[in-house]
Amino acid sequence: MNQHETATKSLLLKSHRERTARRSKRTAIITGSVAAALVIAGAVATGTTAIAAESGPRNAVTVELATGRVADQAQAAIDAAQSVMERAADDNIDTPHLEDRVAELAEYAATPSTIVEARTARVIELTETVTEKATAYEKQVAEEEAKAEEEAAAAAVAAAEAQAEANTPEGAKATARSIMSSTYGWGDDQFACLDSLWTKESGWNYQASNASSGAYGIPQSLPGSKMSTVADDWETNATTQVTWGLDYISRAYGTPCSAWAHSQSVNWY
Fold first, then answer.
1. What confidence score (pLDDT) does residue 64 get?
2. DSSP 213
3. Cα angle at 208 between 174 and 249, to 5 degrees?
4. Is 241 helix (H, G, I), strand (E, B) or coil?
5. What is the structure's pLDDT at 135?
6. Cα separation of 66 and 119, whole Å?
7. Whole-number Å distance between alpha carbons of 249 and 246
8. φ/ψ (deg, to 5) at 66
9. Would you say residue 214 has pLDDT above 90?
10. CB burial string 9-47: b at 16+ within 10 A, e below
């Protein structure tokens, strides 16, 4: 090996040693950095866990259940709602929405106060709505009942006036004409006989009474209670008496003229 080759080899060895040294240095730097990073990461993780453990209890949410004033208001709303629901039931008014809300509110002792307050307000609102419906319904019923009473009173007055008119001699005669025509087919000739007969017997007075015999009323029924087969008002109603008297004449004599002829012959019929 000549001098030139020796110098070249020396340079190559020196260059190799320098590159090896640089790689070792870089490896050491990288290794140290990774280790440092791992240490730092562990410290951060440990610190974060400690902070979380320390701050957790302080940040927990506290739920406040309904007590005191909130609970009292809830119970008062429930009581009022139950009262108006009973009233609505009497009026045949359905209250499913209010019933559902009351059932929810009834759990107020185990419910957060904010929710209880909202539910209480809703129950109060629905209670007012049902109360308005019940009031309107009851007012309508009262008005209808008052109207019905007025109409019934007016009808009773009209009936009394009509009955008073029918109980007069002329009213009784008009009733007799009507029944004779519609029920028996008798005309004016038969009415003339009837008029003569009952004028003789009672003067068409529905209160006529024979003290000696006990005969009573327009047809002089003997006894007067026989006329109860037509109606119980036989003592006070000329129409009842006329109805019974015409039926009696039809069964006993066939026609008013036959009855009048018999009366003329023997002085009774």
1. 86
2. T
3. 55
4. helix
5. 97
6. 12
7. 5
8. -70, 125
9. yes
10. eeeeeeeeeeeeeeeeeeeeeeeeeeeeeeeeeeeeeee
CA distance 197 to 242: 13
* Global pTM exceeds 0.70: no
CA distance 192 to 177: 10
Nearest to 98 by CA among 61, 149, 133: 133
pLDDT at 267: 95
**H helices of the chain, where?**
3-59, 68-90, 96-105, 113-166, 169-179, 188-201, 238-252, 256-266
Sorted by where each begins, the domain ranges of the chain are: 68-162, 169-266
**What is the C-alpha to C-alpha distance for residues 196 and 258, in angstroms, rounded to an integer?**
12
Nearest 5°: the CA angle 231, 234, 238 is 110
Alpha carbon of 240 to those of 61, 70, 226: distances in Å?
90, 74, 11
Average pLDDT of the residues in 168-196: 98
How much is the mean pLDDT over the chain?
A: 84
- Residue 170 CA to residue 100 CA, distance in Å, equals 70
CA quadruple 173, 178, 179, 184: dihedral, nearest 10: 120
Q: How far apart are CA 230 and CA 204, in angstroms?
A: 18
Average pLDDT over residues 222-240: 97
CA distance 219 to 175: 13
| Res 62: pLDDT | 60
State the pLDDT confidence band at 194, using cuts at 50, 70 and 90: very high
Measure the CA–CA gap between 107 and 26, rounded to whole angstroms. Answer: 72
pLDDT of 18 reads 52
**For residue 112, what are the β-bridge partners?**
65
Token pair 């307000």 in the structure block, residue: 121
3-state secondary structure of 65: strand
